[in-house]
Predict the 3D structure of the following.
Amino acid sequence: MFRSVLPKTLRDLRRGFLYWSLGITALVALHIGVYPSVRDNPALNELAESYPEAIKGFIGFGGELDWVSAPGYLGAELYSFVVPLLLLIVAIGAGSGALAGEEERGTLELLLSLPVSRVRVALEKLAALVAEVVGLALVLLAALWIGVTAIDMNVSGAHLAAATLSAVLLAIGFGAIALAAGAATGKRSIAIAVSSAGAVAAYVVNSLAPLVSELEPVQRISPFYFYSASDPLRRGLDLVYVLALVGIVVAAGIAALVAAERRDLAAQA
């Protein structure tokens, strides 16, 4: 029997991690394979200029919408929506199931029978969430690096790593919010709803703020703003934006630990 929650949780995640890894690798291969035909068609940028500003806001990543350059293509096709969406699904799923899911399945009592505190259980669940998201991000980064090297895309590996790190921190932040909501309510559905609604709202606010002046003050507190505004695929790592995302992760993580400690989980098991 495992005397620590972390290794058991990681063991339970291994099959899902394999399927996610295969899916991410296939997705990257598909997009990288299409790029040579896009690179040789500069008319696509002229087409992009005709798009409504609202559309550009949703599919652009950091800088100007640019299909032809490698950073612009990867930003529009992967990092503007697909990469954060996939990592958010993983993180929110892990966070919502960490405590609330265990409680609903009736397995929380077994976890609490271990000689560890409720805070440590929550902390190890959070660590498993982080490990899963980071592991999938490394798979993504490796697949991208192989692909961009194979077809000679002009994008720095350091810049790819910077954009991926930002996506990881964004996902872990909302995953920790899901963990906190689940710990506070004991309901996985509520944890998913709260964290998903927060992520959608943050994405919409960040995308529409350039068009709606009333949203501009709110945009500066959107996690998606800190994720994309520094344009990491073109400019690399920006510590100010990264630290802002780290702050969100830390705050949400602390909220999850406090919720796990204050709620009488044992009585609900």
Notes: The chain has one domain: 5-268. Residues 183 and 260 are 5 Å apart (CA to CA). The two ends are 20 Å apart (CA to CA).
